[in-house]
Amino acid sequence: MHSSFNRYIIKSTLLAFGIVTAAVVSTTNTKQALAQVIVPTTNPNHNIATARYFSDVKTDYWARPFIAALTEKNIITGFPDGTFRPEQPVSRAEFAAMIQKAFNQNPVRQLNAGEFRDVPAGYWGTSAIQEAYESGFMSGFPGNFFFPNQQIPKVQAIVALTNGLGLTTNDTANLASYYTDVNAIPNYATDEVAAATKANLIVNYPSVRQLNPLKALTRAEAAAHLYQALVKQGQLQPLASNVPAANYIVGRTIGSTQSVNDIVSIAASYNSFTTLTSLLKTSGLAGILDEPGSFTFFAPTDQAFAALPVETLRKLQLPENRETLIRILSYHLVPKELTVNEFVSGELKTFGNSPVNITVNKDANQIRVNNAQVVQANIQASNGIIHAINTVLIPPLLNQSIK
User: Fold this and answer.
1) pLDDT of residue 332
2) Hey, which of 39, 250, 277, 288 would disulfide with 202, CB 3.0 to 4.6 Å?
3) Which of 257, 209, 203 lies closest to 232 in space, CA to CA?
4) At 359, is the secondary structure helix, strand, or coil?
């Protein structure tokens, strides 16, 4: 795939641009577990993306749509101080309580009173644990233990949802095409992870291709996975393709065949990348960026392209300037996937064979790429990650006029 870009770039002519671009802890305390409250909404018809306000779930927080929908249904609630604590790990008892509120499945087995030695009759989560067990979602451990206060790993939550919903598949061979850390999936869970993947239950942030199966499930991740499980049941509507949170759903599809996870499709789903999407198709790079890979794409917004002279933008779309357009666009592309947290100040090699200069200002929470600023970060695609920038990057030595 890299050679495809190189063939394009080698053929590129050094045509001048002739412009100046504008800068344009696990919750074990019973009182804490029971003291969650719902933040009221004054308008019952309010959009779920903004229906709940938590001081620590901002409008651009990756899991906000999932959290909003589930708090609307009182499946997961907030805390008395007005927070949601999205990064707080979830205990096994807490996950059982979420399952109890989310689903109404018929019992498939019976739990005898006192069967779990570490779940006494007066324990706050006793009924939830019983229901999660009897409906087939969760099981115990040898010796009749449930470990209610133990943080639940992400893979255990996935297995619970898969079992409780009765999802199955015979296809486990393709897991490596979805997850870069497929070898970290425990052997006991491969069938369930494959079934959950096929059903679009799994949500991975910040990288859609990294499962992190043994990592403790957070409250935000719990909301995301429960939301997808309810979508599978027909209880909730799927997120629209232009909602950023949808980018982290593994295997997200339109209909039953067309993937919408690649960089080009993700960019096309945003209203702010219409010019970029058109230029990718004109250059021919769209056919490469919809293939599997691992890329970082600094994507100029429509406003960034609008800052170019109108005549320059028009000429870039002419067939005779296609190689110049390829060179410009490939200068925005890095041959590895990097989230904003992985950037360090210094040079970063691009497919254009010329590096861009990265400047990280942690105090101002800003990242600059040459003279452009990242205005929206970590837009996840199946084959990489997009960072929106407010200025078109111009390769060096592009110092002659466009035809």
Assistant:
1) 95
2) 250
3) 203
4) strand
Cβ atoms of residues 398 and 12 within 8 Å: no
- Which are the contacts of 73, defined by CB distance < 8 A and separation ≥ 6? 101, 102
What is the residue type of 157? A
Token pair 């600059």 is found at 368
State the pTM of this model. Answer: 0.57
pLDDT of residue 109: 94
Contact yes or no for 9/326 (Cβ under 8 A): yes
Question: pLDDT tens digits, residue range 99-149?
Answer: 999 998 899 999 988 899 999 989 999 999 999 999 999 999 999 999 999
Q: Which helix (H) or strand (E) holds 286?
A: helix 286-289
Q: In the structure encoding, which two tokens stand for residue 247, read together?
A: 């980018």
CB 315 within 8 A of CB 18: no
| Distance from the Cα of residue 380 to its chain's centroid | 5
Distance in Å from the first CA to the final CA of the chain: 29
- What is the distance between the alpha carbons of residues 76 and 38, in angstroms, rounded to a whole number? 9
Angstrom distances, CA of residue 260 to CA of 251, 255, 327, 361 = 9, 10, 26, 33
Reported as a single tens digit per residue, the pLDDT across 7-54 is 444 334 333 333 333 333 333 344 444 333 333 333 333 333 333 478
Amino acid type, 138 = M
Sequence-separated (6 or more) residues with CB below 8 Å from residue 7: none
Give the span between the Cα atoms of 242 and 245, in whole angstroms: 9
Enter the tokens of residue 160: 């619970």
Strands (E), 194-257: 253-254
d(CA 327, CA 127): 62
Q: Taken in order 82, 87, 89, 95, is the CA torsion positive or negative?
A: positive
Q: Compute the distance between CA of residue 157 and CA of residue 137 in angstroms, rounded to an integer.
A: 9
Residue intervals of the chain classified under CATH 2.30.180.10 are: 2-24+261-389
What CATH number was assigned to the domain covering residues 2-24+261-389?
2.30.180.10
Residues 302 and 291: their CA atoms lie apart, in Å, by: 24
Task: Confirm if 71 and 38 have CB atoms less than 8 A apart.
Answer: yes
Both tokens of 36, joined, read 């969650």
Q: Are 161 and 193 in contact (CB under 8 A)?
A: no
